[in-house]
């Protein structure tokens, strides 16, 4: 389950936490039942823990936040969006990403 370093995102806090963030935000669209989502979760927690002042890592449960999933056109999970200055800077899907490739996409 998400650790204290991971922000749980929902319709109520998404704009402020993601779109108004002064630092890059990695948003993970996931679901409880998704095996690959659970496989990559520890990697995301480690990135959040190691770079607390450089990046925010947030998770959107697509089953609970269907409006957000629809807004961003999520069709398969895990889906990752990197927001910088309120804009989508990058997006990628699947759990086959190394820590290095994710950190490099974040500019870490």
Describe this structure in words.
The protein is an alpha/beta fold and 108 residues long. It has a domain at 69-94. Helices cover 33% and strands 26% of the residues. It is built from four helices and five strands, in the order E-H-E-H-E-H-E-E-H. The protein has helices spanning 14-19, 35-50, 66-71, 99-106; strands at residues 6-8, 25-30, 56-61, 79-84, 87-93. A hairpin with a 2-residue loop joins strand 4 (79-84) and strand 5 (87-93). 32% of the residues are buried.
Q: In a nutshell, what does this entry contain?
A:
The protein has about 110 residues and is an alpha/beta fold. Helices cover about 35% and strands about 25% of the residues. The protein has a domain at about 70-95.
Q: Any chance you could write out the topology, listing elements then pairs?
A:
Layout: E1 6-8, H1 14-19, E2 25-30, H2 35-50, E3 56-61, H3 66-71, E4 79-84, E5 87-93, H4 99-106
Parallel strand pairs: 1-3, 2-3
Antiparallel strand pairs: 2-4, 4-5
Order of helices and strands: EHEHEHEEH
Largest β sheet strand count, sense and barrel closure = 5 strands, mixed
Largest beta sheet: strand ordering: 1-3-2-4-5
Radius of gyration: 12 Å
The DSSP helix count reads 4
Number of strands: 5
Tag the structure with descriptive keywords.
five-stranded mixed β-sheet, 108 residues
